[in-house]
Amino acid sequence: MRYPPEHKEETRGKIVKAAAKAFRKHGVDGIGVAQLMKGAKLTHGGFYAHFDSKDALVVAAIDAAFEQMRTRLETAVSDASPDEHRRAVLDAYLSQAHRDHPEAGCVIPALGADVSRLDAVAKRSFASGINALIELIGGEGQDSEARAATITTLAAMVGGMVLARAVRPDALSQEILDAVRNMA
To answer: Largest CB tally within 10 Å, which of 8, 20, 163, 170?
Structure first.
C-alpha cells in the first residue's frame, strides 16, 4: 500500500507528540520504545524508520515539549501589557492545572534530572529551550542584570513546580504555588 508523501512526516509527528507526553509523565527511563509506539497507536517495528535511536527521539521530544510550553506562555501573555507580562507568565506557569498534569506541562521540572544524565545533544537541546523561555519571560536583548533576574524567576518557577508536585495533594502544594507566584 502506498502512502501519500506527507505520511512519514505525520507519523513522525505522532511519535514525537506521544513521546513528549510520555517522557514528561514517566521520565526518559520510565518508558520504552515499544510502549511509546503503542501510545502513538503504531507498531514497534516502525520506530526505526523515523529515528536512529531512542536518544534521537528524546531530543525531538524535548524540542516539542519546549515548543508546547513556549506557545502556552505566549498565549498567556498575548493580552498582557508590558507591566503585566511577568505576572501573566507566573500565573500561567504556577497554576493548579500545570501542577496536576506534568505530561502536558513544562519539560524542565519533569525531565531536568533525567537530562543531566543524557548525551550532549540532549543537553544542548534542553539549554536551547531554557534560553528560549528566558527570552520569552524577560524579552530579547536583556542586559546582564535583567537576564540574571529572569533566570532567577525561571529557577523559582521551576523549583516551585517541583516542590508543589512533590507534596501534592497536601495544602502545602498550593501554598508553594501561591508563594512563588507572588514573589514578583
So the answer is: 20
Non-local CB neighbours of 59 within 8 Å, separated by 6+ positions? 121, 122, 125
Structural domain contains residue 58: yes
User: Does 2 fall in a domain?
Assistant: no
Q: Which domain holds residue 168?
A: 7-181
Task: Find the radius of gyration of the CA atoms of the chain.
Answer: 18
Domain count, the chain: 1
Domain CATH code at residue 133: 1.10.357.10
Enter the DSSP assignment of 183.
T
Structural domain contains residue 1: no
Give me the residue label for grid cell 493548579: 96
- What's the predicted TM-score (pTM) here? 0.89
Please report, in tens digits, the pLDDT of each residue of the chain (184 residues total): 677 777 778 888 899 999 999 999 999 999 999 888 888 887 877 777 788 889 999 999 999 999 999 999 999 999 998 889 999 999 999 999 999 999 999 999 999 999 999 999 999 999 999 999 999 999 878 899 999 999 999 999 999 999 999 998 889 999 999 999 998 6
Phi, psi of 108 (to 5 degrees): -65, -55
